Structure formats: C-alpha cells, structure tokens
Amino acid sequence: MKAPGRSLRVLIPYFAGEDTFQDNVAYTLRKMGHNVMTAPHRFRRNRGKVQRIVSDLAASIYPQRWEEYETYTVATARSFNPDMVLCLTQALRSEVLDELHRLGVARCVAWWGDSPANMRGMGLLADGWDAIFIKDAAAVHKMQAVGLNAALLHEAMNPDWHAPQGVARDGTLAVIGNYYGYRQFLIKRLLDAGVELGLYGYSPPRWGDPRIKAIHNGRYVTRAEKSAAFEGALASLNCTAMSENDSLNCRAFEICGAGGLQLIEDKPSIAQCFEPGSEVLTYSSVEDILGYLDKASNNPDWANGIRDAGRRRAHAEHTYAHRLTHILKEVEIE
Fold it and tell me: Of 273, 230, 276, 279, which Cα lies nearest the Cα of 251?
C-alpha cells in the first residue's frame, strides 16, 4: 500500500466543467496532493443534443466499437501511467477495463452521481471494476447480488465555494437545476399559491410552461454565485425527477454548505446525512412547503437556527474530501 500522503496519479476521463462533479472531485484530489488528469475537451456525445443522437445511433449500429471517451481513456493511460482511473457518472466496457489493467492501472473505480435509471446500455454492469460507488441503496444491493464490488456513497459539497457568501436575504424560494416535467409541475403549483420564486439554471425546454419561462432569470450559476443564490433566498427547494428513488443529489449538500434553508422532498436516505427538522426541512406536499415558507418568513430565528445547523453538518461530514478519503481507503493501491 502506498504510504499515507503519497501522491497518486489519477485519470478522470471526462471534461471538468466549472462546478461539475468532475470539477469538484479533480479540484479536491489536487488539493489533497494528488496528480490528476482530466479530459481537455468535451467528447462528441457531450457537446449537444445532435451530437448525442449521432453518438447513440453509431453505438446502436456498431456496438462493438469503442466510444470516443473509451479510446481516450486507454490512450491517455499509456502516456500518463495512472495509479487509478476514476470514472465519475461514466461507464467503461469490460474490454476497456481489461486493457487498463493490462497497462498497469492498479485500480479502476466508478463513482456514479446520477440516477441508476440514466445508465446507457449495460452501464456499470461490467467485469473489471475494482470498486463501484453509487448513491442509491437499492442499486447497490442489485449490483452486489451479481457479484460486483458495489457500495453506497452519497454526493458531496466543496467547502471552498459551497459556503456562505455574506449576501443579503430576500423573500424568494430558490430553485436551481434542470426544468424537467416533475419540477415544472411542482413550480406551477407553487406559482398558483402565490410563492415568489427565484429560478436559476438551464433555461426551460421549448415545451416548458410559459409562466416558468417568463420568470426564469436566464442565469446558470456555479460555485460562489450558486451559493449566494442559496444563501440569499428565504429558502431553497430540492426536488428530483421521477427517475430518482431514495437517493440524494449534490444540492442536498451544497444548499446546506452555503447556509441555505433547505426544503427537501421526504425520503429515508436524508436521515443518513442530516437530521430532519433540525438541519433540513422535509416536505411531502405543497402544503408542507407553503407552511415552511410562512414560518421562515415570520420566525427568522427559527429558520436561521436550521440554516446554521445544516451548514455545520455539511462542512463537518459531507465534503468531497470526506468522500474521496473514504474511496482511497477502500481501494488501497499496492
């Protein structure tokens, strides 16, 4: 095993856009003293909808052909000589994993930060992974049942920018993310109830509700600006798509890290990370949300107590450094 503090060479075969999963992991590994390589550009299927359609079509016609990022991974492993290939919400086929091990890569590790339902093809169901970390407990059990070395691992926050920014607070309910169907429908219910909303992130799709399009502020926020949006709102809403089951997204940790008052849909996994009612507020209905907003508006001391407790818990237990320390311990490299 490498001595504690020894620098590892880690290949993350994905482009690290600002404040993405890949960016936060690469940033943290470098801060921990490791040598990290990320892809210098986006691969074809990640450059837009048309490119993704073309890539999916090519994969269906020529399933045996390696995808662009798989070819990149092996070519870069030959020159970079990584101790570990760390795939973040990214899958590699068994043949690629075999070739990486043949080239001397000690550990091929996957950390999947999305819903398992969004895996394409065989996804992570491939021999050759030394360890798989995924945020959905049901998916972990299914993978373990077929002999894969899978374990539960939640997402995280980066204390260097998912932290309070000292901004003034307004009376809005902040919503940050993509505007898929379920989120739009919930927002419509809140609009009908007269809630003042601050909508950030990618613009709603063409088929999106006109009222939502009209109030979306057109800003895709990252890092400190995203944290300022969480901190500056009366509260921040955290809901997920219909494909998400009992798992937490990165915003569950970023909102708290930024000092926001988090209203998160009720699910059992929350209690593994935060104390409901004391560090976050869980809801099971629109009425719950409206009640929390009314109480936060009329009782700021109560709301600030929850913000402070959630922030302390996030920074003490849920940073990327915490998660990566766990991964490196689990995949001891000889």
Answer: 230
Q: What span, in angstroms and rounded, lies between the C-alpha atoms of 315 and 202?
A: 27
CB 156 within 8 A of CB 319: yes
Outline which parts of the chain fall under CATH 3.40.50.2000: 173-317
Which tokens is 109 given? 């590790």
Tens of pLDDT, residues 113-148: 999 999 999 999 999 999 999 999 999 999 999 999
SS in 3 state form for 244-303?
Answer: CCCCCCCHHHHHHHCCCCEEEECCHHHHHCCCECCCEEEECCHHHHHHHHHHHHHCHHHH
| Cα R_g (the chain), whole angstroms | 21
Q: How far is Cα 166 from Cα 197, in angstroms, rounded to an integer?
A: 21
Model-level pTM?
Answer: 0.93
Reference 320, options 83, 20, 40; nearest CA is 20
How many CA atoms are closer than 13 Å to the CA of 134, on its beta-carbon side?
A: 30
Q: Is-contact 270 176, C-beta < 8 A?
A: no
Answer CATH for 173-317 from 3.40.50.1240, 3.40.50.2000, 3.40.50.2300, 3.40.50.300: 3.40.50.2000
Closest CA to 98 of 117, 80, 85, 116: 85
Cα dist. 172→53, 55, 168, 190 in Å?
38, 41, 12, 12
Distances (CA, A) of 197 to 184, 185, 242, 275, 292: 12, 14, 22, 26, 15
Distance CA 59, CA 43 (A): 14
| Pairwise CA distance, residues 160 & 142, whole Å | 35
Q: How high is the pLDDT of residue 2?
A: 42
CATH class of 9-156+320-330: alpha beta
